[in-house]
Every structure is written in structure tokens, then in C-alpha cells.
Amino acid sequence: MRADARRNRERILAAARELFAGEPPEVQMDDLARRAGVGVGTVYRHFPDKEALMGELVRERFALFNEQLRLALDAPGEASADALAQALRASAEGLADDAATRFAFMSGGERVFAHAALEADEFMRLAEVLVRRARRAGLLAPGFRAEDIPMMMCGVCSTMGRPGPGWDWRRHFELLIRGMRAR
Amino acid sequence: MRADARRNRERILAAARELFAGEPPEVQMDDLARRAGVGVGTVYRHFPDKEALMGELVRERFALFNEQLRLALDAPGEASADALAQALRASAEGLADDAATRFAFMSGGERVFAHAALEADEFMRLAEVLVRRARRAGLLAPGFRAEDIPMMMCGVCSTMGRPGPGWDWRRHFELLIRGMRAR
DNA sequence: ACCTGAACACCGTTCAAGT
DNA sequence: ACCTGAACACCGTTCAAGT
After folding, report:
1. What pTM was computed for the model?
2. Model confidence over A60-82: pLDDT tens digits?
3. Cβ–Cβ of A172/B110 closer than 8 Å?
4. B148, A170 Cβ separation under 8 angstroms
């Protein structure tokens, strides 16, 4: 890829992160192009459509989640549930600070997730290792599965940055973690 | 309201429920009007815009939630946590069968919830009574609050009818209920 | 009072022309 | 090889005319 093209691509993603973080549904491709300092056509050259742009945000976020899960792999067996909880907590904090990606997660269709399929698969592999380890140590609720983790993250995400009175996603998160752990 | 106007209003809501249940983001006001057998202008006469239509779906759903919570009030103190869980479970089942309203819940802005403010307030009042009762009976996790309930419902809703592999909103729901209960 | 639907405005996407 | 932005298409919303 030519150097100017690579730079443009990064600028477009940066503009998307900035603008989608504000009033996501209002963001127009023209605004995005202007903010990135390119023509609309250039946006479409790099990303076939608006959903593809959101897909890239989601892909990068999954990569960050995976970094957190990998850190948790270092914990010894008896701390594995704490380490898993901490990895998810740190991931949630990151997502809470990134309204643009939250928008992509929540309003994106299948194509958004298809774009991040590799990273999502890796996420599940890591989650399974951690859950198996914590289960062996007797630290998880009976019947808790690795597949529950994406649902937890999605659910918590849905309550971030919303108007609900008295809403506090961290409480919601800890409620789920409490449900995840053995009594 | 004139009889034909009332009938049109109902037809528009019925059409919204049917069409939004299919491919929500694709639904156009023209399709909606055609399905309801009225002109587009009539849709706008009854609902100032698309969001107002979604707001009405949400309002009616809150009323159904409230019915469930009121049923739970009949339970004796020692069954109050079970009754609360059951009311929420039944509410979630209803929502799972109503993709149109789920769409309204998830993609609607503040105005959607403002339209349902009365019913939402009633929901919180009922939830508070039930939570107080279950807390007195020692059946809830320490620190669990009535305000956690809307977050739980929102979170579970976000995992209904989605493409995630291995996703099962009922597991997600029971995980939250497990977090809600005393050990 | 209420309804209709052509017309308007807005915004995602394309593509012919340019470097 | 990549960029530009005017033009096009689509769809939410309005409003003049009708009953």
C-alpha cells in the first residue's frame, strides 16, 4: 500500500472514532471525509461501506480484549477466576471509553462481526482455556460456559453511555461476575 | 378521536409490529403505510416521526412488564425473590417474542423512553417494592438494588435474536438472576 | 377532522475525470 | 495506484389539495 494511502486509511479511522463517539447516528460520510481531510470517494476506496468501517473498529477492539485475556493466562490456577474477571473488567473499561466502537458493536449487523471473525475466534479460544482452568479449580458456577462471556460483554455494553436513571454499568458488570463465580 | 382515525392508528401500530419484526433497519415509512392501508401522511398524523412510533411500542411493552411485576406482589415474603425472578423471566420471554419492540428498545434514542416515562416510573416503583420485600427476607445479594433491574433487562435484550454463535439469552438471564440472589 | 401522495430534503454510494 | 467531488438514488418528512 502506498504511503499516502496508508496515512489516509489511518486518518479515516481516527475521524470515525472521533465522530462516532459524539452523536453516532448523525455521522455522515461527508463529515467523516472532511474531518479526515480526504474526499468521500477515498473513504469508499478504503472501506466498501459504512458497516465495513464499523467492522474495523470492532476488529481492533477484539484484539485489545484478546491482549487482556492473554495477560490472565499468566495467573496460577487458584487465581484464575480473579484473573478472568479482571481481564473482562479491564476490557469493559476500555469499551466504556470508546463510544465509537460501542456504537459499532450495538448497531452493527452480521457483516460487522464477520469482519472481526478471526479475532472473535481467538477470543473464544482464550476464554475457553481460562474457563476450563477456573472450573478445574472449582471457582465457577456449575454450568458456566465460555460462550456466556460474549453475552456478558454485549449486555454490559448495552448499558454503557445510556440515559437510564441510576444506570451504572460497573454494577451491572459485577452482578454478572457474581453470577459467574462459584458460591 | 374519530372511529376511522382510531382504526388507522391501530393498523399502523400492527404494521409496525409486523414489519419491524422482520428486517428492522430496512423498514421504510412507505412500506409501513402501504401495509397499514393508509397514506404516509396518515402515519405522520398519528406519530410525529419514526421514533414516536417506536416509543409507543416501548410504552405498551412496559405496561406488560408492569402487569408481571404486579402479579409478583401476591407472593408471600419467603417466595418474593422467586416471584420477582419469575416476573422478570416472563417479561423477558414476552420481549423475546417481540422483535419489533426489541429493535425500538435497542436503537431508540432518549425520546423513545421519554414517551414511556409514566410506565417506566411505575416499573421502578413496583421493582422497588419487590426488592425491598426480598431484601427483608434475606433473599438478595448484598447491595443489589431495584435500579439494577432495568440494566439486567436491557442487557438480556441485547443478546436476543442476534447472530452470536452459541448465544442463548436464557442462559444470560439466569446468570444475572444468580448474581441477584443471596448465596 | 382526517386522509392522500407528489414533492422536497437529506445523506449513502458511485463513477468520470484528474494526479 | 490513488484521489476528488459532482451526480445519483433512496428514503424520512412535509404540505397543498381533497373528502
Report:
1. 0.95
2. 999 999 999 999 999 999 999 99
3. no
4. no
